[in-house]
Design goal:
The complex is a heterotrimer of chains A (299), B (358) and C (392). Chain B has 358 residues and is mainly alpha-helical. In chain B, 73% of the residues lie in helices and 3% in strands. Chain B contains 14 helices and four strands. In chain B, the strands form two sheets. Chain B has a two-stranded antiparallel ribbon with strand order 1-4. Chain B has a two-stranded antiparallel sheet with strand order 2-3. In chain B, 49% of the residues are buried. Chain C contains 14 helices and 17 strands. The chains are: A mainly alpha (299), B mainly alpha (358), C alpha/beta (392).
């Protein structure tokens, strides 16, 4: 086995992993703020990407389209909060989870109803070709686009982390994540915080949609991105931003390595389930996830 | 005034423990069975039998299976279709490799195989709960489909990955016409539904519900968490497995693994939610509702097009269907988490008091 | 004195006939109970008591002694007591006494009525098969916990607590909030594994048993925050308590008619007796979620009783109840203890109740044991007084 090839696989896995993290981040934000496991995050990614690409195809300027789509996502997020989550407040988490599965169907149907169901190409101006310098000097092929996407995702993750660490809203969010009642008691406007979080989640969905859409085309399959993010969440824990990042990297890298080095022996295509089995095996050893805290059950 | 239990006294515990303690209910159920077993095969046309009634029964069986696990034992699963797939493909292999075996025995064995797979993938439920577990069952969904597509044995090395269900012969009689297939399905579903009802109204059901409602208290009573959860996975998967076999043999005829994708799993989950979590009757109602909804939408679409003089885009209906499905799920979860079965019960209680308001 | 005591083997009862007697000195009381105890001891088994109070006078000065000796005899040898008083005055006096001392008066107008009631009592005990039947001949201590330590991460919930619980007694664990009482109960019920220390039941080590195996040994418990199965009816909730006793499996259940049906009906009969006992007939088919708090507590007790426990652990059974509900609950607890001889370990905040009904009290504070003994001893212990005053 040559090392260049190994590095290629590893790096492309890690870069794909960062993209998983990006989607997982949307889950984590909403889970932290409102305790909802938002299965519809994948549908939101699809909705955002399809809206954006349709606007651009209708001749809208790139940046205006970004702003408009963002506005649409914020509206969608707030509407979800109002119409779905608010009436379900105080219900068991599993009920909320099932509601977001319903939401997935609504968003998918709505997106295609509005913009049609044919696939679109999306061009961000970054070619998906190997970086010449690396190819020449080290004989390693790493896609320029992957690096670009990884950087964007990394920057976004870092930016969000800083935002939530340092700003007033960030502190409020952390208080809310800690204890809803207590947060209300000290006068944190819960509803406002939730609206902001859903808006941010919409923004994250848009970025993820652009990246994945440029990579694989904007099509229905984009909704399956959510399924890729789930093992990441199990690994990293639902409440940890750091967990989402590290989990994404681990899943991305191990999935690619397994596919390349293990796949041929078992017939290939193991990407579909390998991350899940990995996450499950991990879960059995540490049920609280990488960065989660062990809970003491009280009777 | 017609629906009232006044004057019907129970003098023994056995009488009080009947499935339908109220006489009017018993009459209604008997009438329904007569219609299902006699009326439908006599009067329903081929389309209704093969495209609506048979799949309805099969999906109701799968819904019942999932309801045992999710509604009664409280373990959410998103891998229902995978268990059905195991049932379908194992039934095929049993019939193929052991041709002397009666087809119904193949179905049962296929169900047992599904149960075994269910128990294996139920193991994580001992350590994880809620949506962590739901995600774990996704692993089953993807793994099983992958295995069926990649391992040639399951499809008898069919190049396209598609299998063709053998003819169903029982005691020399071949079940070929839509009416035959309907009757066979109806019999299997009816028997399994009765068995499920018995199980769920006695100790097994109480154990499941205890685990669902308060696992700590269940343990203190002496209920073994591991046994009970795995039993729920096993029984549930058995029902799904048999449903899968019927899906292949009585409904589709030719099957590829993709027929049992995640979408089907979701659809069955929706049937559970809309029909009623933790209700056998609800499983049938939910299945009927979701099978009939697209037909209803299409029937409505025709006149609307005609009325407005427009042609609706072809994708519209399927997308509308998605939206309606999703919205209904949310609606039921918010307004009536116990689904149609609960609405039905409320209706009956109203009827009991009728014509008085209270 | 001897001719006043008759043993009726046929109904398993000892009859004490006080007709026309007068107890004026404590010595007379002692003499009587010494004789009773001697006779009981000689038989080597437990008895029901049938006491005839007709025209009997017990002067107020000796009542306390009389009651105290009676209680001891009952714990050691008794299965339950019925009393006969032909005059309304006697009956009223005993009823009042019973209310104050929290025992069940069980007083009847005639001897025949009393014997009938005794028959009922016997039937109940036989069908419910409590622990008491196994009673005599075994050691006094049924459960002992030794040097228990419990840590959560770095937090010490319990440090070095040990005590012994006697068969057939009511023992209480008291202490200020956060003293580690509930943790102790969780250790005993097998829900928490102690970090160090041992738990012995009937002389055998059961430290490492999981909660469901502890249940198998004959432990039942209720929870501080009611842990009922919310989606099920009262009846089904109590039926789950029979889980360990029900034979059969999912296959016999599926083929209901025959075995499972018979089993189900048999268990239902037993459960109905408990329902009668706790007076919850009216809510039999009501989903427990809809019941008021006090009734939910009662259903939870019923579920625990359905397990026919040898040791019953009650975690604040009276918390959040009004006076009336509390009185009911106290009566039920005493009845359970009295009629089925069930050993009870209880955590309770209401000091009055604890001191009234307990045979033995363990006082905890800051995770440690600071005192133990009879209610009288504990009440006057300066360490206990300081802990309670300090807590306020």
């Amino acid at each position: 086995m040559n090392w260049q090839f190994f590095v290629e696989v590893l790096v492309s896995g890690l870069l794909a992993g960062i993209m998983y993290s990006l989607v997982a981040l949307g889950f984590v934000l909403i889970y932290k703020a409102s305790g909802v496991f938002n299965f519809a995050q994948g549908a939101m990614v699809f909705f955002a990407a399809l809206t954006f690409v349709s606007l651009v195809e209708r001749g809208m300027n790139f940046w205006i389209a970004v702003v408009v789509t963002l506005a649409v996502m914020v509206v969608v997020g707030i509407a979800i909060e109002r119409l779905v989550l608010r009436p379900l407040v105080n219900q068991p988490q599993i009920t909320l989870f099932m509601a977001t599965i319903g939401l997935t169907f609504v968003l998918e149907g709505l997106a295609q109803l509005l913009w049609g169901s044919q696939p679109h190409g999306l061009e961000l101006g970054i070619p998906d070709v190997p970086i010449q310098w690396l190819a020449d000097n080290a004989n390693i092929n790493i896609s320029q686009f992957d690096v670009f996407a990884g950087l964007i995702a990394g920057a976004l993750v870092a930016g969000l982390a800083v935002f939530f660490q340092t700003t007033r809203i960030g502190r409020a969010l952390r208080a809310v994540a800690d204890d809803h009642q207590a947060a209300l008691a000290v006068g944190i406007p819960l509803r406002q915080i939730w609206a902001i979080v859903w808006a941010v989640a919409g923004f994250v969905a848009l970025v993820a949609g652009l990246m994945w859409g440029a990579r694989n085309g904007v099509q229905f399959a984009l909704t399956f991105i959510a399924l890729k993010a789930l093992p990441v969440l199990i690994l990293g824990g639902f409440e940890s931003v750091a967990g989402a990042i590290v989990g994404g990297l681990i899943i991305g890298a191990s999935e690619k390595l397994a596919e390349v080095y293990l796949g041929p022996y078992v017939g290939g295509g193991i990407e579909s389930w390998f991350p899940y089995v990995l996450a499950l095996a991990f879960l059995l050893i540490r049920p609280e996830g990488l960065f989660g805290e062990r809970r003491i059950e009280r009777v | 005034m017609l629906y009232r239990e006044a004057g019907q006294f129970k003098t023994t515990y056995a009488a009080d423990q009947q499935v339908f303690p109220i006489r009017q209910d018993r009459i209604a159920v008997a009438a329904l069975l007569v219609v299902a077993f006699v009326g439908v095969p006599l009067f329903a046309n081929q389309y209704w039998l093969s495209a609506i009634l048979t799949p309805f029964l099969i999906l109701a069986l799968a819904t019942l299976g999932l309801n045992i696990l999710t509604g009664y034992a409280g373990q959410l699963s998103l891998g229902t279709a995978a268990f059905m797939a195991v049932g379908a493909f194992m039934a095929y292999n049993f019939a193929l490799r052991l041709p002397w075996m009666p087809i119904l025995v193949s179905f049962m064995l296929a169900g047992l195989c599904a149960a075994a797979v269910g128990i294996v993938f139920g193991l994580p439920s001992l350590r994880i709960k809620g949506f962590y577990l739901a995600v774990a069952t996704l692993a089953c969904q993807f793994f099983v489909l992958w295995a069926l597509q990649r391992v040639g044995w399951f499809t008898n090395d069919s190049a396209s990955g598609v299998i063709t269900a053998q003819k169903m012969v029982i005691l020399g009689y071949t079940f070929e016409s839509p009416a035959d297939k309907y009757m066979l399905t109806l019999c299997v579903v009816a028997v399994l539904a009765v068995l499920a009802k018995n199980m769920l109204r006695s100790e097994t059901g109480r154990k499941f519900m205890a685990v669902r409602d308060m696992d700590i208290a269940a343990e203190v009573i002496g209920i073994r968490m591991m046994q009970t959860k795995l039993l729920a996975f096993g029984i549930s998967s058995f029902y799904c497995g048999v449903a899968g076999a019927l899906y292949a043999y009585a409904y589709l005829g030719t099957v590829e693994p993709e027929a049992f994708n995640l979408d089907l799993s979701f659809r069955i989950l929706f049937m559970v939610i809309i029909g009623g979590v933790g209700s056998i009757l609800g499983s049938f109602m939910g299945a009927a509702f979701i099978v009939l909804l697209p037909i209803f939408l299409n029937t409505v679409a025709g006149p609307i097009e005609h009325l407005l003089g427009i042609t609706l885009p072809s994708g519209l209906m399927s997308n509308l269907e998605l939206i309606v499905f999703g919205a209904l799920i949310i609606f039921f979860l918010i307004v009536e988490p116990h689904g149609l079965a609960r609405l039905w019960q409320i209706g009956k209680e109203k009827l009991r008091l009728w014509p008085f308001p209270h | 004195m001897r001719d006043r005591i008759t043993l009726h083997d046929s109904i398993g009862a000892m009859e004490a006939d006080f007709t026309g007697m007068t107890f004026t000195t404590e010595a007379e009381v002692e003499e009587f109970y010494d004789e009773v105890d001697r006779r009981m001891e000689a038989t080597g088994k437990r008895w029901y008591f049938l006491v005839i109070y007709t025209d009997c006078v017990i002067v107020p000065e000796v009542w306390d002694r009389f009651a105290a000796r009676g209680k001891i005899t009952n714990i050691k040898y008794g299965l339950g007591t019925v009393r006969v008083g032909t005059s309304a005055g006697t009956r009223e006096a005993i009823r009042q006494r019973a209310q104050r001392e929290m025992f069940r008066a069980n007083i009847y107008d005639t001897r025949d009525q009393a014997i009938l009631a005794l028959g009922e009592m016997r039937k109940r005990r036989e069908t419910l098969g409590g622990a008491a039947a196994a009673g005599s001949g075994e050691t006094q201590t049924i459960l002992s916990v030794e040097e228990i330590h419990l840590n959560f991460g770095g937090v010490k919930a319990i440090t070095n607590v040990g005590f012994a619980v006697n068969r057939g007694e009511i023992s209480s664990i008291i202490g200020p909030n956060g003293a580690g009482k509930s943790s102790m109960l969780n250790v005993i019920s097998g829900f928490y594994r102690p970090s160090r220390g041992r738990i012995y039941y009937e002389g055998k080590d059961r430290t490492h048993l999981a909660a469901h195996d502890v249940a198998r040994l004959g432990f039942a418990r209720t929870f501080q925050n009611i842990a009922l199965f919310k989606g099920m009816t009262t009846l089904d909730n109590i039926m789950t308590g029979r889980s360990l006793k029900i034979k059969g499996n999912f296959l016999t259940d599926a083929l209901y008619w025959g075995f499972a049906q018979k089993e189900e009906t048999a268990q239902r009969e037993r459960v109905e007796r408990i329902i009668d006992f706790l007076e919850i007939q009216a809510v039999r088919k009501t989903p427990v979620g809809r019941l008021p708090y006090g009734l939910q507590k009662r259903v939870e007790l019923a579920r625990a009783l359905a397990m026919e426990p040898k040791v019953l652990l009650l975690d604040e059974p009276m918390a959040g109840m009004n006076v009336e509900e509390k009185e009911d609950m106290v009566r039920f607890i005493l009845d359970v203890n009295d009629q089925w001889g069930t050993t009870i370990i209880l955590i309770e905040h209401d000091m009055g109740v604890v001191m009234d009904i307990s045979d033995f009290v363990v006082v905890m504070d800051h995770g440690g044991k600071i005192a133990e003994g009879t209610p009288g001893e504990v009440k006057s212990d300066p360490v206990v007084i300081r802990a309670y005053l300090g807590a306020h």
